[in-house]
Automatic annotation (TrEMBL):
SMART domains: S4 (SM00363). SUPFAM superfamilies: Alpha-L RNA-binding motif, Pseudouridine synthase. The lineage of its organism: Bacteria, Bacillati, Actinomycetota, Actinomycetes, Kitasatosporales. This is Pseudouridine synthase. Residues 126-187 form the RNA-binding S4 domain. Belongs to the pseudouridine synthase RsuA family. GO terms for molecular function: isomerase activity. Pfam families: PseudoU_synth_2 (PF00849), S4 (PF01479). It is an enzyme of class 5 (isomerase). InterPro entries: PsdUridine_synth_cat_dom_sf, PsdUridine_synth_RsuA/RluA, PsdUridine_synth_RsuA/RluB/E/F, PsdUridine_synth_RsuA/RluB_CS, RsuA_PseudoU_synthase, S4_RNA-bd, S4_RNA-bd_sf.
Amino acid sequence: MRSSGRNSGSGGSRNHRGAGNSRDDKQKRAGRPRPEERRYDVGGSSDRTGSGKPASGGGRGAAARGGAKGGPKAPAGGKGGGPRGGRPQPPARPRELDAQIEERNRARHSKPQVKLPKTFGEQEGERLQKVLARAGMGSRRACEELIEQRRVEVNGKIVTEQGLRVDPEKDEVKVDGLTVATQSYLFFALNKPAGVVSTMEDPDGRQCLGDYVTNRETRLFHVGRLDTETEGIILLTNHGELAHRLTHPKYGVRKTYLAAIQGPIRRDLGKELKNGIPLEDGYARADHFRVVENVGKNYLVEVSLHEGRKHIVRRMLAEAGYPVDKLVRTSFGPIALGDQKSGWLRRLTNTEVGMLMHEVGL
């Protein structure tokens, strides 16, 4: 009976060991540690399993324990505590080298910026539609429509595409054949009252043209003159070349006047004025003459001429025997006085400026 008990006990133990050995074999073949090894392994290089191999997963346990407890971590070169893949950490860079690198970076960025060629930099000039819009030809979209309609010329060539760049100071821009003042020029028409002197400043303190443009930022000057008692249109601008041509006899810009005289007048007075009236400084000829109104002995006549000598209309009519009681200039070239009130200043439209430039070949 005892022997059978021993046999049965020994057989049971053998079966138990056989089952454990088979489980261990399966764990080894799968490459996984036994549960008790996982539980008590701390990742040290000296901790080994009963089989003599290092315990897997030890590095992870060491990192967890060291991080949780705040203790020291495994060295970088160790098998269990190294970075993933077992690669060694690069040595730390000395502070002197970091300072040199920082100094080189600062020196490189502190150099003056290299000026790129114009091919790679900003393009010259301004877009044509922007120049036209600034000159008062309408909104940019309206100016683009002018270009699409082939109504815009630059230096004598019709523009057929959008986005063309121009130099407002050098290029000649025209719309419908009329030059557009693309530069920062000002053009005004003043209905000068009687008693105003045709100067921008008067040393005697009399009322002058400058009194009507005192709030202008740029200096203006008058185109031609009107004597103190003559009323009517006079142009003011800062465009020197245009002003010069408008007053030069070579360009023959016509001026028209209304003169109040006493009659009766001779029927051939108009022919006499057109043929020429002798004056002390030479003959003076009218381009056009007509009677506008006649009430009894009071006559209102219109005289047009392209000369600009001092008091030329008054002198011509006085020499013909008809002194002038009142004189008004109603037009200067293509710019008419219209219903502009006496003493009023108005800015010329772009069309009027274009007509003036066309008159003198600009």
